[in-house]
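Task: encode each sequence below as structure tokens.

Item 1
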Amino acid sequence: MNDPRPPLPLSDVLDIVERRRRRRARAQTAAGSTLGIAAAGIASLIVVTLQPDRDAVPAAPRPSAASAMATPTPDPPAPSAPPPLDPVYGTPDYLTSVADSVVTGTGRRHDRQLADAEALADAWGLDLYPDAKAIVGKADVVGVDIAPRDPDGDEELVSRYERAGLTDEDAAELAQTWTVDPRTAKLFAALLLD
């Protein structure tokens, strides 16, 4: 059966995919937290149920209710261990596919993205394609505000990249994969971090 509606532009499809990915990640985080709390509650119930009769065994120090209910928290990753990036981001054509979504879009949003990409290329000293267009396109999809007309607007992305524990070596590796310079790889990778 033929659908009378025209197909969605690639940029809209990428937006939908990104929103669904974020929604799944939030749901998984919430489910994991709920299961952890439930497991701690069950464990404390089992401990209380299995405790021997006080008259039969000498009294031993009892853990406080807070420590029995506390769920172990995983150790935060070491600053030198960068957060894992989704494997799809590591494909050679990922950056250019994001840039292409800006090139092939239509409407006011598309016009704004193109204008922002041109301003960003001039202000930040990047190539227009794929560098500036990919950064503008991804920032729009993930909802990160950037200052494309500010020559120092890239500093926030660089700080975000460094706070995540990513290094210059990581940027060089991503740059080689995406065939861009390391600075562009660092700026684009900062947008891929949750």
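Item 2
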Amino acid sequence: MSVDSRAIHFRLENPAEHDRREAADREWEQRKARRTDSTLFLEAIPLVVQAEFGVWSKDDLAPLFAAVGWPIEEEPVSFRKGRTAGIESETISISLRASKTEQYLDPDRWGFGEYSRVWMTQRLAANVVDDAYRAALAICVELLGPPPLVGGPDARAIWRDNDTTVLLTRDLGSSISLAVFPTEPHEGREHWEWNWSDWTAAECWLVAPDAEGTRYGFPTWGYPEPLATSWPSLDDYIDALFLSLAADLPVLHPYATWVIWVITVADDPDAGFLQGWFSPHDARMEYRHSADADLTTVNYPAGVAAGRSIAEVVKSELRALGVPSPDRLTLSAWSSPEPQQIHTIRLGLEGSG
């Protein structure tokens, strides 16, 4: 049986199949725990971020795969459906992939070449992922300068120029990835999808460090999120944002330090409020149900558990404010210290940007 916020699921299994699956899961966890060395990923970062991608043809990408030197999968397919190079062993799981531009991306319309993205991923033991990400971020900063945008989910550090965008991410407790893609085709397609479909941006928050030495720009367009029209839809925003802030700020420091947020009832100064902050070191939650009620304050150590705990309190206490729906709520948020600035924060409320 499994339970989520809106449903209960039951499943019947053959006992032998259940035992086989549990044994396979244990074997997988044991293998994953042995994957602690991120050296190959770190050594390959300069090759990826300094590669000449040209017009994103197979001839442009071939030197990168040759320089990395990992075995090529599915030879001699050679770029017809993309290309993957990598190493898969008891202690190493790493890959470099090039995505063939799919027909639906319409290269003539968006300006993609034969290939739409190159990305490198290493799967690692959960206890080393954050340190590996910090090391990768330091190498990227040494090569590219400070990132103009950082955020989450997945600890995003973004370097964007007119030709290419570099994106470093961390899948919590699982892997680190470095992607490069052509900037203008990628952003043009996203903007079209935002206008004409139900596409939503991947990030739930971004901070502009405005660090000295940053030589990259911001995306051409911003993408306001759909407003939360019900409590369950607001719950989804809350879970995503607060978990990411708690998990990602510690590995993005010093490019993002404090994110402070305040939720109030629109046009009602006598109503209660909720507020708090996240930082690399701790988190705080404060709330009161009305202007004359006592203020409740709870402090948390940094980390994923803080994000989950604060999200649960926020969901409960927002309902306790007595407003009929989320459209009565407003969000204010900012980053500290200066010159850091909030670029994007998504909570489905007016004022969230």
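Check on item 2: The chain has two domains: 34-195, 231-345. The chain has a mean pLDDT of 87.
End of task.
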